[in-house]
Amino acid sequence: MAYQSMPTDIGKLNRTILCYAESIYRFNGLWEGPDPLTPLISLFLIQLTVSMTVVHLLVYALQFVNQPPFVAELLVNVFDASYGGILLGPSALGRIRAYRRMMFPNYSFKVLEPMAHLSIVYYAFLVGLKMDVRAVMRTGQKAMKIAIAGTIIPFFFGSGVYFIFVNEKSETFGFIFWGAALTVTGFSVLMKILDKQQLLHTEIGKTAVASALVNDLSSWGFLALGFAITSSPTNSPWSLITTIAFVLLCVNYVRPALNWIIQKTEVQGYSEFYICSILTGVALSGVITDVCGTHPMIGAFVFGLVIPNEVLEATITDKLEDFVMGILIPVYFVVCGVRTNIDLISYNTSWWLAGVVIVLACSVKVFSTLIVAPFAELPIKDAFAVGLLSNAKSIMVLIILEAGQIQGVLSTQTYSLMVVAVLVMTMVVTPAAIRFSPVQNTEPYKRRSVQKAKSDDQFRVLACIYNTRNVPTIINLLRTSNASPRSPINVFALQLVELVGRATTMMVVHDPHSAGPRNPRHIEAQADQIIAAFDNYELRSEGVQTQAVTARCTYTAMANEICIFAKEKRSAFIIIPFHKLRHLDGEMIDINPSLQSVNEGVLEDAPCSVGILIDRGFAESHDHASNIVVLYFGGPDDREALAYAWRMAENTNVRLTVVRFIPSTDALELDPAEWEPSDKNHTSVEIDKDSEKLLDDDYLGKFKIATLNNKSISYYELVLNDEEEAIKAIKSMDEQEYDLYLVGRGRGMISPLTSGLADWCDCPELGPIGDLLVTSEFESLFSVLIVQQYDNTNKMKEGSMRSASSVNYGEEFATRPSVSESDGFESFSSFKKWDPDN
């Protein structure tokens, strides 16, 4: 048995004869047999455990400085053989010979290398599976020009700089891999950074993402080209021709065949056999492109790219992604890490020159974007930002560099230098994103609420749509909102679709005159219905302008997408549908629990006022509301609800009733401990009650004076003793058959008339009165709009509102208190209307 020490230049390992023992060790336990680190399987599992532990600790630590996980993976890579290798490799722990011999002996690589390359084959499949080619085809001219410049210029620049460090003729073709590495923009890494910094839907973010997608796709072509040329320069044309033929075969025959099979099996669901067959196809595709003379990753990537069905994509991703990214990919970083040795960067050259090359490599993306900026009509400041953001790298750059080492055209010196440059480039991206974040730079717009909007200003509304059943209720509300040429309404209809299978949030602006790639059939059909409904509303109304947009994102990202879009469009009001719909028996049925969390997220982070719209069957038989009531208890949310109703009341076909609920003197004299909610989380927002009462009196006074001669507007004041009388009064209003109830959410307003209701809230996002109106105790059909006013002082920022699932309601709060007419309380019809003469 003979062992040869690892050569200094790992990049030339394939040129070195490495001897190792062929005997297979059988470990019979700690008390019998050899050292547990000797058997390959035991050693492999220990290597995997150590690498995963180190990288996850680094990911956790680096999140405090806003660095993406890829930086942690690179750091562990810059310092041996682990889930990112630098920390565990020759540059750090690898200096300890005992550690090196014990944890990463040479013979262990006969297991690590095959596992590493299997991992990147399935990683490539997942990348292709998530990539949306339609998004590339929809790329605008501006982003396409930047993408082309960001591909060509860095490639030639990197190729030229490469020769500064190369003296050996045998490494001539290494420039292909160096240049290709500089063209890469890590699409998934960039998306996460932009999303976190709320840059995703800004002009800078859209341009950077679109160009990154094109760069990412072109990097696969560079990988195929480099691998084919360096494998056999004379046969490289045939390698490329046969690989292109394989791609065409997949697009023209494999994709239609898969589509046919999917249509036959979609109803029954995808069996384990079906998923295994797909994964076998991945391996077969890798074998084919390997035989063609290019990299096995190319075949796996193309096979993932042609999978036609989103449900199948989501199913495969759910089953495969955690295993590949959590178990297999760490092995690849082990192998990449052992190839990195920082000490060799300054071999036969100086650190100063190496530093210059690293700086040049980091600046080439910025340089290329600035060159093309005048042709793309991109401001210099934006071009500089896009260039910095385009420096984000991903695992793809390591795959390209490692391929160069495998082919023997990149030495450990040139490989290590580029790895360090990639690390610096990626670390710069997050600070750049923070600098250009709209949170830091966007000037706030002033009129973010209905109350502050001028009557002759354009009323900008963002109407969110979860499904087509939301459309009639929303259009019903908009018709009642009194659009006119003097006071126009600009409506952005945002269809929100759960993102499955793809990696990126998609925002599609629907233009009836545009041609090009379409959405999947069911999404396209829904979008067509929504567009038709809003187009019809625009045609039948004066002073209305509509635009339909489809946003595809995960439920966790949906609230953030709504808020960013509202800020971008400078909306004054966001309409979000309630997550429950009325069933035939009158019960409110939860159609999707995830939407409740979305609504709560919007209420918490909205840049303007928000209304949760609830349909209790009214919209099914009416096209607009004509009999409206405002339940006014006091506070900014109620003033916003009244402001919206006031706008509606300018429509001559609308009758408005405003009912102000006032606690009696006896109720106010009670100890607050007797009527404050038992769940303090519902009252964590404090408001100055005296100042709010003055504001209420002032606003209501203006309203009463302005509407004094309007016979279609009624105003009532009810003096009540407790919440039971308030419930009775509200229930008695059912006799009036109102079409639409407007209610403030009531944040921070503690009143003896509503406080007890908070203890029985099933949906805290509606507030106590809104939650009461959702119950099935009302017989008439109506809609409800729960209004929350935007607060620019952030004094009312709520972090304590919770969904019903997180609140433990005791048995004593299982039902609401019931009040009947026999309790001696008058019905609403007997209440006295406000008379200005008394």
TrEMBL record:
Compositionally skewed regions (Low complexity) per UniProt: 818-831
Span of the signal peptide: none
Gene3D superfamilies named among the record's database cross-references: 1.20.1530.20, 3.40.50.12370
Transmembrane segments: 40-62, 74-94, 114-131, 143-166, 172-191, 212-230, 236-254, 274-303, 323-342, 351-371, 383-403, 415-434
Subcellular location, principal: membrane
Membrane topology summary: Multi-pass membrane protein
Any one GO CC term of the record: endomembrane system
Gene Ontology terms describing biological process: potassium ion transport; proton transmembrane transport; regulation of pH
Swiss-Prot/TrEMBL keywords: Ion transport, Membrane, Potassium, Potassium transport, Transmembrane, Transmembrane helix, Transport
Alphabetized InterPro entries for the sequence: Cation/H_exchanger_TM, CHX17_2nd, CHX17_C, CPA2_transporter, Na+/solute_symporter_sf
Family assignment from sequence similarity: Belongs to the monovalent cation:proton antiporter 2 (CPA2) transporter (TC 2.A.37) family. CHX (TC 2.A.37.4) subfamily.
The name this protein goes by in its record: Cation/H(+) antiporter 15
Organism, as annotated: Sesamum angolense
